[in-house]
Structure formats: structure tokens, C-alpha cells
Amino acid sequence: MNRMKVDEEEYWHSSKCKAFTFDDDDDELSQLKESKRAVNSLRDIVDDDNDDLEKFSWSGEPVGSISWSIRETASSSSNAPEGRDSGVQKGSSTHATLPKQASSYSLSSFFKGRNKLGSFQSLSDALSDTGVKSYAPELRRPKAEYKDYSSDWSPKDTVRRMQRGKICSLERFRSLQEKLMLLDEAVAVHDGNVITAILIFLKRTLKKEILFRELEVRQVALHHLIHFLKETGEQKLLLDLLRFLDRTEEIALFQYREHLSIQDAEKRREFLKGCIRLPFSSEDAIHVQDHYTLLERQIIIEANDRHLESSGQSEIFKKYPRKASILNMPLVTTLFYSCFYHYTEAEGTFSSPTNLKKTFKIPDKQYMLTALAARAKLRAWNDVDALFTTKNWLGYTKKRAPIGFHRVVEILQRNNAPVHVLQEYVRLVEDIEARLSLAMKYKCHDVVIDTYRDLKDRHQLMAYRCKVERGSAEEDKIDNILSNMQIRWKN
Hints:
This protein is mainly α. It has helices spanning about 1-15, 30-45, 65-75, 105-110, 125, 130-135, 145, 155-165, 175-190, 190-205, 210-215, 220-230, 235-245, 250-255, 265-275, 280-310, 315-320, 330-340, 355-360, 365-375, 380-390, 405-415, 420-425, 430-440, 445-455, 460-465, 475-480, and strands spanning about 390, 395-400. Strands 1-2 form a two-stranded antiparallel ribbon. The longest helix is centred in the middle third of the chain and has 30 residues, at about 280-310. The N and C termini lie far apart (about 125 Å). It holds the Pfam family Vps16_C. It is found in: Cytoplasmic vesicle; Early endosome; Late endosome. InterPro entries: Spe-39, Vps16_C, Vps16_C_sf.
């Protein structure tokens, strides 16, 4: 311990800038000067504006550059060079004037962005200096940021980063095994966007035969790819995939959809005729056949009606000119058109509503609704009445509506049917509450009065008397019913 203490004291006493010790009490003024110089040297490290003053280290070297700092750092682990003590005598309390080193950098110029020569440098230029990086490592980019640009991510880590929206390069995954691991990880996290992004990468980097083979045992990824190809319109690749999977019905439906892009009616009919031979399921085959038959009918009806309209031979076309062509219209629209313009035609004609009903097996409810809307629009009330009138085997007539008379009333009212027509069908509504509600809503007063009379509800009848016009036929009718002594009222 004594030896170490002696060495320390010898070191401090041998410094060119004499340090403070407890043993030196004989020269207080000299100690004060040395301390002042040391403080000024530290201050000048961060303030380089005063070039008139020399800057010294404790060893006597000038402090003016980063290179000095690096050498000082390196010398701490090795013996000090002999030239370190040159220019100053041991134990002296004064300093000789030493020339500055030729370095053009100082700490103050480094942080202020300029060198001693007065020229400015960018921070990137400063960071490119090896000495700067060694001396000030805190100015480097944090290591955590470099991880964002690392190419050494595992498939699992890559998928997690993609979920967080980080930019990841998939090009480093070169082997088939790595690519499939990447896809499996994406499927495991149930993220559709990540699955789609990886599928796009696989589609670009793998042969389609290999891709199809691997996706065949990965149904989730397969569904994603099929949906993606449909959305992007890559028909050729989609057809190749469906053929590989031997999905003949899907191939047929996919080819059938091409008719949507054919505008010409004759060309579309020929295309549909060829689609009939495709391997559809039994149910889909019926729909394709009906589609072809309907378009064929529409072409015939359109040509005939265009001729009748242009020649002026039909009164209904004069009174109600056609607003659009019937070509490529749905079946219900075609039926409405037929009920509107060709309602009275014989069943043997292509444009007859009954012919369409029988050919395409239209349900009774659908036929009733469509025919009612067409005839009510024309205000053909006799046709409406005949539509719901049926005869039993004894010859008695009765009104029957498969759609319910409450719906008949609503359709008639939308087409501005007169009150006497509405009242006739409101009476046929079986539910009493619904009948009263419809009668009050559409002001069918006779129906309301007769219903309350049949219910023998005197109070409701008297209350309704206040709702009709004073001196009207409805008010007189209510008064006659209320004065009838033969009715046994419930209240």
C-alpha cells in the first residue's frame, strides 16, 4: 500500500501541470494559477471561439482536436510515449508556448457543424469520420433501428412484422421449404392481408405446377388465392388452377360468366347455346337452359314489337310507348312486359303471359303479383277482378288470392285505385284487426261501419261517427244502425 501511495504521489508531482496535493502548502499562489489554467483548458474544449489562448492537457499537449482525444483514450491502456513530456520541464509551475496541431477539427466545431477553417460540414460527413465514431459512439444510430433493415428474420418473425405493418423483404426466402414455412406461419396467425401478400410472392417466384401442388393440401391459402385471382381478373391462371384441382363445375360456371361481357344479343345467344354442353351440376344446367330459352324468346318478341310500334298497328303501343328494349332483361321483367302489352294473347304465342308461366314454371304467387302490378298500372280493374275470381265445381264464383288480400289492397292503392275498388278487396281481408286498420288508413268508411256493426260494438261506432263528415252518407248510415232496435249491442 505504501508503495502504491508513493507511486501516485510521484506521478502527480511529475506532471507538467502541477496538480493539487495536500502536502504542498508552501506555494498557494502557484497552486491557484495551475487550477485556473486547468479550468480554462476544460472550458475551451466546448468553446472554441477564443483562438488566442493555448489549450493544454494535463500531460502538456494542446487540446484542439478529436484526434488528440482518441490518442489520449488509446494511451490509457499503454505506456505514455516519451515525446509526451517534450517541451516542458518536470516540476515546473509555468508552461511553455507550444504550437497547435494541424487538425482542423475540435469538439466545439464538431457540435456546431464547422471546422476550424470556417467551412461547415454536415452531420453525415461528421459521422463518416472514423475518429468521430470512436470518440462519440452515442451519436451512432441505435442498434435497435438497424434491426428493421436486417435480412436475417425467421419466417415467424417476418410474418409478425408484416402484421405490424413493417417493411419486410421476402426475397431472402429462396428455398421451397422456407417459402412454405412462411405461408404456413401466415395461415396460423389468420391474417388475410399477410396471406395474400405471401401468395403474391409465391405466385411470382414458383412455377405454377409446384404452387398448385402445395396449395392443394393448404385449403385456407387455396381459397385466398382463388378469391384473389377472381378479384384481379387473372382468368387464365384461375382456369389452370381449377383444371389442376379437377373442379369441372366451377370451370363451367366461370366460363358461363363470360356472357356478361357480350353485348350483342345474337352473339350472346350463340354463346349460351354452347354453354349448355358444359359440365354443370343438374340444377345449374336447368338455369343455363332457361337462360338460353328466355333470350331466344326475347329476341323474337323484341323484333315483333318493334315492328308493331313503328308501323302504328297496335293501340297499346300508341298509348303507352315502350321505354326500353326487353333484350337481356330478367324473367320477372319479361313477364311484367308481357302482362302489360300482351295480356290477352293466346297461350300458343311466345309473348303470352300464360305461355311464359308454363314454359318457365313460374309460381302462382309470383305470377299473381306481376300480373296484378301490370294490370293495375293500366287501371284495367276488370282484369284485376278476373285475376282473383275462381269457380268451384258447382259453378259458384269466389275470390281467392294466393298472395293475401292485404297485399292486393296495397298494390291497388299504390296504383291509385278508386275507393269502391279498394273497399271490395279490403272486405276480403280475413283478420278483423288488419281489415279495420286498412279501412281506416285508406278511408274505406263503409268497411269500418259494417265491421263495427257486425261486432255489435256500439261505443266504437259512436266514436267513429265523430270522424266522418257532418251530413255525409256515412253519418246517416251510422245513425240508422244505432237506431236499429233489433241489434243487441255488446256495450
